[in-house]
Structures are given as C-alpha cells and as structure tokens.
C-alpha cells in the first residue's frame, strides 16, 4: 500500500477519545497513599478532575497547562492532525484561557507507515495551531506499535475569568455548544455504513475550535465550564455535579445530535467506550439503551458544557447565537435530593 492510500484507522485498536481510560479505572490509577507536595500557587490540579492545570503567576495572571493525545479517528493523516490539535487546544478554552504555545507528541510505527504520512499529521496540527493563533513550537516522538498523536498546550488566563468544572450553582441552566454522536459516527465509518456526508459532518464538528470559550469566560454568570470528550456528556456532567455537590435534570430531547446518529445506533454502531463509560457511572444514573448510547458516547473534540445562572442566561444565549451556536438549554442543576440519581431524565 502506497503512503498516498494509507488508512490510518486500520493501524489502531481504538479511535480518538474513545481510547480514553474509563473513569472507574482512572480512579484506581490516580489513587496514591504517598504524601503529595501542595503548592499554594497551583490553583487547579488533579483534585477537581478539571480540563487543565492552572498555576498562579501573580495576582492577575495564571498559566494553563494541558496535554491530550490519541490514536487515529479518521483515515486521512492531515485531518487526523487537525482533529488531535483542535481537541488538545480545547482544554485551554474550557478553562476560559487563551492558548499561547503547543508541543507535539508523536508515536509512529516507522516500519509500517511511511514518515511522509506522519509529516501530513504534523501539518494538520500546524494548520489548526495557526488558526488558534499559536505556534507548534517543538515536540517529542517515539517509534510505537500504533500511530499516536496529540499536543501539550500552554495557555494564559486572567484569574478573574478562570472557569472550573466544580463551581456550578443550584438553579443554573446547562448549555452545550456542539452536537453529540461523534463516537457513533466514527464507528459507523469503520463499519463502512456512514456516507461521505455523515463523515464530513463529524469532521466539521471535530475540527471546530472551541474559541467561544474565551468569550464565555467573560460572562460573570457562567459558574462552571468544561469540554465534553471521552467520558461522554453524562461522565463530564457528573464531574460537574460531584465537584459542585449538586444534581442535574436533563431535557434529553433538547440535546443536539449529529445527523443520522439514531439510525447508526439501530444498526449497531456503538463504540466500546460507550459501555466502559456507562459501567463507570451506572451507580449514579439510570439510562435506557438509547440514552446510554447517546449520553455515554465518547466524544472526540466535543463541545463546551456550560453552567450559567438564570440572571446571565439571556447574555449567554445572545453570545452563542452571535457565534452561530443554537442557544438551547439542555437541563438545569438542582440541590442534592436523597434517594434520587445524580442525573435525572
């Protein structure tokens, strides 16, 4: 097979953020009895399971640091680079920050795939970094059994605009900036069920930078912010609920979906990550099969999940509409109620 006709997804056992380790297993990996150094300037770290770490430089400015990488979710190398870069940069936007620099992480099976293909992956990442206004400033590479690519991204933030995932308030409304269904459509592509139009819709969503996060951060009434990736909407919403000591009510029918998601679910295009995600949270939420396949679908380069006060809701709706995002509330946050699930539908 020439490198011009290479299909990257044939060389990896998983795809995109569907490769992410489940929350249940991740809890085991991160657990430790060893003493931890507590730096008073580290404002956001592992304790909140947030999107990025934030380090205070002075009274007004912080540094935001994150990394994200995965195996190919599409066959085209340039597009893979675009998606991986968009996904990694999103963590900076999800904190309300501005990206300033990126470093590449590359694992490549040199004996199986020509280096010219990896060069196209890097070019795709460079293109998205340029769109974000940053430079791909360096990186590190290894010879690995499967292709892996991502970025370590550094950003900066005005501390008054810092948005976390554990600071939501009861009564807040919930908004989502991108439709769900990336995992389903990616699996349909692997099974050769998806049309070119289906694939293009998914790629367009994954390649859309979450720059709107910088604007959202300027809305005082936005109390919490995160991006929806490998744990699915339910998993990331549970992180908000647990961190903020709240529960959520979801209007399932209001959740935006990519075209033909239900059709592909009926055809059995369910990524393995969906089951892993649900197994990790099923003690906190009860879902029908369809709800599970949508709410636990692992998203790659998904949208932002926003918690906003009722007083600031109109301001947020106007902002989203100006950015071409349909401003439809998908639920609300409520005080903890005994003998009920953390997310109610």
With strands numbered from the N-terminus, the spatial order across the biggest sheet is 1-2-3-6-4-5
Task: Please outline the major beta sheet.
Answer: 6 strands, mixed
Unreliable segments of 5+ consecutive residues:
none
Order of SSEs = HEEEHEHEEEHHHEHEHHHEHEE
Strand content: 15-25%
The residue-averaged pLDDT reads 93
Q: Radius of gyration in whole Å, from Cα?
A: 19 Å
- Backbone shape: globular
Distance between the first and last residues' Cα: 49 Å
Number of helices: 11
Structural class of the helices, strands and pairings? Answer: alpha+beta
| Portion of residues within helices | 25-40%
The strand count comes to: 12
Overview of this protein structure:
The longest helix is centred in the N-terminal third of the chain and has 18 residues. With 345 residues, the protein is α+β, with helices and mostly antiparallel strands. Strand 4, helix 3 and strand 5 form a beta-alpha-beta unit. Strands 1-2-3-6-4-5 form a six-stranded mixed β-sheet, with helices on one face. It has a six-stranded mixed β-sheet with strand order 8-10-7-11-9-12. The chain contains eleven helices and twelve strands.
